[in-house]
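[job 0417] fold request received: Multifunctional methyltransferase subunit TRM112-like protein
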Amino acid sequence: MVRLITHNLLACHAKGCTQNNFPLQFKDVSIELKEQEVNSEFVKNFLPRLEWKALVNTARQLGDTSLPEELPDMVDDDFLKALHHVLFEIHVEEGAMVCPNCGHSYPISNGIPNMLLSEHEIG
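[job 0417] inference complete; emitting structure tokens
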């Protein structure tokens, strides 16, 4: 499933595409919200691994404005719940992820991204 926790780790890996290849931009997507139990400790521990600006911009592109523009110095339960929602409960079911550099499109079908490249696209 394409969740924003996964999306925040993905970059284009097409041949020669090594700059401005993150984050991939969602295009023509359908989204489902799937509630999950909050694991605040996991979310807090994962926080240093996130590319914050990319996460916030992607969430906003998908219609969620619950995260602050800047990462707060102090995190409370409300912040962790909002972050959990963005990372785990927003599921992109259909559409594509497009590289902002080379324009390569990675299709998403039934919640699964196809990150495979054709032979001529492998670097």
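[job 0417] notes: The longest helix spans residues 77-89. The radius of gyration is 15 Å.
[job 0417] exit 0
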